[in-house]
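Risk mitigation, structural track. In case the binding assays with 2-acetamido-2-deoxy-beta-D-glucopyranose fail to produce interpretable data, a predicted complex structure has been prepared as a fallback.
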Amino acid sequence: MNNNLKDHEHYFHSSWTIAKLTTSFFLLVSICYLFYSLGFITHSYDCPPKKPYPHPTTTHFSITPTTPAPPQETQKPFEKTNISHIVFGIGASSKLWSQRKEYMKLWWRPNETRGNVWLDEEVRSEPGDETLLPTLRISSDVSMFKVKNPRGERLGIRISRIVSETVRLGMENVRWFVMGDDDTFFVTENLVKVLQKYDHNQFYYIGTNSESHLQNIHFSYNMAYGGGGFAISYPLAVALERMQDQCLQRYPALFGSDDRIQACMAELGVPLTRENGFHQFDVYGNVFGLLAAHPTTPLVSMHHLDVVEPIFPNANRVEALQKLIGPMRLDSYGLMQQSICYDKARFWTISVSWGYAVQIFRGIFLARDMEMPARTFLNWIRRADYTGFPFNTRPFSRNVCQKPFVFYLDNAIYDGVADETVSEYILVQPNPDCKWKMPDPTQIRMIRVHKKLDSHLWDKSPRRNCCRFQPTKEEGTMVIEVGECRKDEYAD
Ligand SMILES: *[C@@H]1O[C@H](CO)[C@@H](O)[C@H](O)[C@H]1NC(C)=O
Ligand SMILES: *[C@@H]1O[C@H](CO)[C@@H](O)[C@H](O)[C@H]1NC(C)=O
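Fallback model:
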């Protein structure tokens, strides 16, 4: 019985195996044939030998070899935006070019940045200029455009048309057109970082407002101020180019180039995407307060460099910007980023603006006050007081004892052994006498800041860095570490 059962089982098993084998054989033949046929299809594609991912192609599922290949673009692995994808269009005037070009030489990266300077007339070029600066072009004639603004100038029309004129150059692999003035300083790595957040295949108009509420009311809160610079994605620039000249004729009474761009953007229905790292700097005086409490976003641009005071004391405007180049090259993501901490033993508040300045205050100032810009600057509309700023500000100092001790950047290096940057800040101006009976920050001559690079700083949700003291026996020196906040660490 047992045997019978086994035989039966055996019989069943072997007969099933025969059936399976037969099926498998035909299946194998079919699969071989399928792969053989697919060979013709797949081999007709020119695939590079090594790809980071075996990215999907439709070929394995295509039924007939005549199915058209999908467009190349969709098959490419996603490529992050880099500096080569940006084309700058810089509006310049021939009269001021000999001074303004010095600002541009500070940030322009020959053979890396792409773009043109658009002038109204030919200028005399000095030897060496062409290797340090972009191609100079003369804007096309705009005399046929109507103008009705009181100044009767066509300058604004010429500058606003730079976008269209740049599109017409037909440059390849462009994702963004970035406009700026000849007195705009760009931190190109941070510009790239900001633009990486957006899909360049969509319509984007990115920049920000003026620091003057009245300017924003007069022009528009929907407008990217041209001097601070703004970015227009490729397809939007193409759409603008197709309609800009007709559009411009509808706004003869507008004043500048950026309000004309905004008028056409409004017709296209594209709102301003605000990025607060662009700085129009519609202010007078000292921008220290704005730079020492920079918003938690990458520093992208600075404008009106001829209007505001040099950003470092005891330097001319170009030399002052030159000082920023060192820390900018070391750690552009960290440049101007604020961190706030306290020396509780001495009852001092410390505010670091990395790569620029460190301040010591007598007494404890809360984080919500320290992150407000101090009013070291005046409103563009000079009669306006602090209510004329579209953001919160605080007085610079009410009492001589509360005047901060400002330590400005002296030098910054990269320490390869510790794998961190070391930047040193020194006191350059004496503070007024103070009668308060508490430790005097005058005893500190130099502040040394250690900071690790954080290449993912802007890939995370925005958060201010933390700063903390490192004990030191060096007299007259304060040592501070700046970095990502640890668990349960905050400015208290
Ligand atoms: C920028 O990205 C492109 C791909 O779109 C790549 O070919 C090029 O090498 C990159 N350039 C730089 C400077 O990284
Ligand atoms: C830029 O490239 C050109 C040609 O490749 C080269 O001759 C020149 O030295 C480069 N300039 C700089 C500043 O690297």
